[in-house]
Design brief:
The protein contains four helices and 13 strands. By secondary structure, it is mainly beta. The strands form two sheets. Strands 2, 3, 4, 5, 6, 7, 8, 10, 11, 12 and 13 form an eleven-stranded mixed beta sheet that branches. The chain has a two-stranded antiparallel sheet with strand order 1-9. The protein is globular, with a radius of gyration of 17 Å.
């Protein structure tokens, strides 16, 4: 990994992006804080039936991955202040990795959040599988205790986690880079692939440790995770710009391969 030195504005640095910024204006700004990445390897044959056919899986050395990511989010629409109630929203994501047109991104199996308005907005305008959940987050020194219980399904996450190393940036070709440096999300609607571009500075990652007391988030999506996460990392804060959702012409995608670092 490389030592982290960040400018303050995400648009101050764009040369790390694998493709140019969209020409149209970004739609909203989000701040993601106290985020844990918990990564599990999963054979692609188990993931493929659960991901829409329009979205080719992205693998690292032939291995698929599932990531569960709890964090706190702040949302600011472009040109507006943070709306009341949107300054510190717990969110919990369960995702895997896909690619279209040579643009690697993430595909979400689920996104848990406390806000009914956020569930409605994300489902309506981004066709993302958001769920209303009861969530609690407590912070003591460096440690974060995070719990989530989905209201209409058995999907529970209870864990305590904290960073244990200095901040570093991941290097291209490494598994950390593959799992985090992605600048779009994918979803589908009426079997058509859709993509929303995002932009942020390179992830300021720290190694992490976590005690996961209960985790049925992936089970709710039909994926059994065995044992503790293979990789854990933490990010204190990152500022993210989000663009509108757009249809992807699936007849032009090119698969990409992520070799391991020599």
């Amino acid at each position: 990994m490389l030592e982290a030195r960040h400018p303050l504005n995400p648009l101050d640095k764009i040369d790390h992006r694998p493709w140019p910024l969209p020409h149209e204006p970004w739609l909203m700004k989000q701040f993601w804080r106290d985020l844990l990445f918990a990564h599990w390897p999963v054979p692609p044959r188990r993931l493929r039936p659960l991901v829409p056919a329009a979205l080719p899986l992205d693998t690292f050395d032939g291995q698929g991955w599932i990531t569960i990511a709890p964090f706190l989010m702040e949302i600011r629409p472009r040109g507006l202040p943070t709306p009341p109630g949107f300054a510190r929203i717990p969110e919990l994501n369960c995702r895997t990795y896909v690619t279209l047109e040579g643009k690697p991104g993430v595909y979400f199996f689920s996104l848990d959040i406390t806000s009914a308005a956020a569930v409605w907005g994300a489902r309506t305008f981004y066709h993302l599988p958001y769920f209303r959940s009861d969530m609690r987050v407590y912070k003591s020194a460096e440690a974060i205790s995070y719990s989530s219980k989905r209201r209409r399904a058995k999907a529970v996450w209870t864990a305590t986690y904290e960073p244990i190393s200095p901040v570093q940036l991941s290097s291209p070709g490494t598994i950390d880079y593959f799992l985090t440096e992605r600048y779009c999300l994918y979803t589908t609607h009426h079997a058509r692939a859709l993509r929303a571009d995002i932009h942020h500075l390179p992830w300021p990652l720290q190694q992490a440790r976590a005690e996961i007391h209960e985790n049925t988030i992936a089970d709710a999506a039909g994926i059994a995770l065995h044992g503790p996460p293979a990789i854990l990392s933490f990010a204190r804060e990152i500022e993210v710009l989000v663009w509108p959702l757009r249809r992807v012409p699936t007849d032009s995608w090119l698969p990409i391969v992520h070799p391991s670092k020599p």
